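Handover notes (outgoing to incoming on-call)

Open items:
1. Transporter: sequence verified, structure written out, both below. Nothing else pending on this one.
2. Nothing else urgent.
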Amino acid sequence: MEEHQKSLKRENFSSGIAVFFATLGSAVGLGNIWRFPYLTGANGGAAFLIVYLICIAFIGIPVMVCEFYIGRKTRKNAVGAFDKIGASKGWKTIGFAGIVSAFLIMFFYSCVAGWVYSYLFRAINGDFAGINPDASGAMFTKTILGPMPPILWQMIVLVVVSLILIAGVQKGIERITKTLMPVLFILIIICDIRAITLPGAAQGFTFLFKPDFSSLTAAGILTALGLAFFKLSLGMGTMMTYGSYFTEDNNLIATSAKVAISDTIVSLLAGIAIFPAVFSFGMKPGAGPGLLFITIPLVFSKIPLGNLLLVAFFFLTSIAATTAMMSLVEVPVAYLTEEKGMNRKKAVITTTAIMAIIGILATLSVDKGSVLGKVSILGKGFFDLFDYISSNILLPVGGLLIAVFVGYFNKKESIVNELSNEGTLKNTKLINIYLLILRFVTPVLLILVFLNSIGLIKI
Ligand code: PFF
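Transporter structure tokens:
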């Protein structure tokens, strides 16, 4: 039994391709298809996009490399990794905060994933045939206000994620991501082709690609930073945990760059699928979280065989959400199995049960007319509060600490050794440039964004 547990614990991904798709599966999720478009819409389009790209290049990729470095070097969960790498006790807080973030994100993420699953079901049912903008808006309201249906869908989501995770790293995570990520990519491209041929689509492009800096606020800059962390699943030990399953010969810097670039491409493709349609149907780009749910059914309802494509689209959005949630849940699961000696099945069930119970609060808080919807902490309902604390505070702070830990508290030889796969990659120059950025650019940018967002300085 003990032996069996050990082998399960240290199961790894089987190949470079598996590493890439699993990691991309974590990064690509509701963030690309639901969040990126509506946040870009709400924060001034292309100006926001530019700040976002800077965050990805100078903060996201460097922090991702750090997480892979810690994970693969120690082959441990987000908490145990800090012990194994010889860090003093305090650094473990990063791992614990990561576990808290995994829960906070899952509380609201599983709710939105539930909406996506229910839309898939409706699409299969043919509910969107010939839909107009008003009916589409009404359908979204009906979907999220429940109270019972959104909770049921959320529970279904959590059961699906649990079943995959119980199957293990290779048979669960690897198999699902490797099969379905490429299909998602193809489907988004099909949506794009349709969206850009709609009348009035050009306005959507202007909105997405022509910067208007006057509409970018300090809060918008912090949001871009938070989105970069959320998008790339950083600052909370997810990539550390996945890194601990990487193959020995994986090129960590190259994988980080490939994943970040592919993920950004998927976000842009989602934006291109959505904004031209928004303008074409005379809707507002800053429509908020409903953008995906209201506009996508409209776009597809205009296409020949649209309903079939709509089924495929929501099926693949469900997959994107599911593969991202697998990585979120894996953070506490890896901790519980390795540090607390729980078997994998029990760890998965314990974790998702807690996520289910508190996740219901987030789901019920969406209805502002309900008792829970009226609860306000720091001026936010549960759903928004869980989101704000994790994305805008815990992930960026976690990312800053991870960057400082690796950049200043790890021996250069150890980093060079790991990032060059013990010298086999001959990439010392690149590692040196990386270390310069990690030490002097990443933390400085992160701190500037924070000071700016709390009003202490003005960028
Ligand atoms: N990256 C995922 C998305 O963009 O939807 C969300 C996410 C997954 C955030 C895993 C954090 C995480 F650890």
